[in-house]
Amino acid sequence: MSDERRTTKRRDAAAVGSFVGGVIEPLCAKRGFATADLIAAWADVVGPRYARSTQPDKLIWPRAAGAEGANRPRGATLVIRVDAGMAIYLQHETAVLIERINGFLGFGAVTTLKIVQAPVAPPVPDRKKSAPSPAAVVKASAAVADIESDGLRDALERLGRGVFGEVERS
Question: Which residue of 8, 113, 128, 143 is most buried, as measured by CB atoms within 10 A?
């Protein structure tokens, strides 16, 4: 008989977000993206003006250059879907956008943008916070009732409503 102990792996709860990468990465690879980072951070990269009207579609990498293609640019072409009407504005800011994209990626990966007018999927709306319950409002008001300064009392009461409301939701 051996003294081998059975080892069991402990399965801790994992965040759902940790599984999303495994699902999305093959789809991104099919579209030329190494990771989903650029797609996820697209709104931050392009800024609020183009966040809702543009969407990265695919990244086209050049084929390996032979002797005759040695002078061709080595960067990729990023195909961007743009809502009708915004393409002309985006076209004028192509150089700035390429600089932002390469700054995000950390190297000169993109040298050309190809703008395609096509419908853009609407962004996922932010989850709105619900109003605090009446009990949270009463609790916050009671906690700051002794403060003499009106401005400070109002500010602390708003903060208290948010804190007590968040505690109730969690």
Answer: 113
Q: Note the pLDDT tens digit of each residue in 80-99.
A: 999 988 999 999 999 999 99
- 11-49 burial, b for 16+ CB within 10 Å, e for fewer? eeeeeeeeeeeeeeeeebeeebbeebebbeebeebbeee
Structure tokens at 8: 């069991």
Instruction: Please compute the mean of the pLDDT values over residues 136-142 and round it to a whole number.
Output: 89
In angstroms, the CA 59 to CA 114 distance is 10
> CB of 138 within 8 A of CB of 168?
no
Query: What does pTM read for this prediction?
Result: 0.57
- Token pair 């009708």: residue: 84
Tokens of 5: 């102990």
Q: Are 170 and 130 in contact (CB under 8 A)?
A: no
Q: Which amino acid is at 147?
A: I
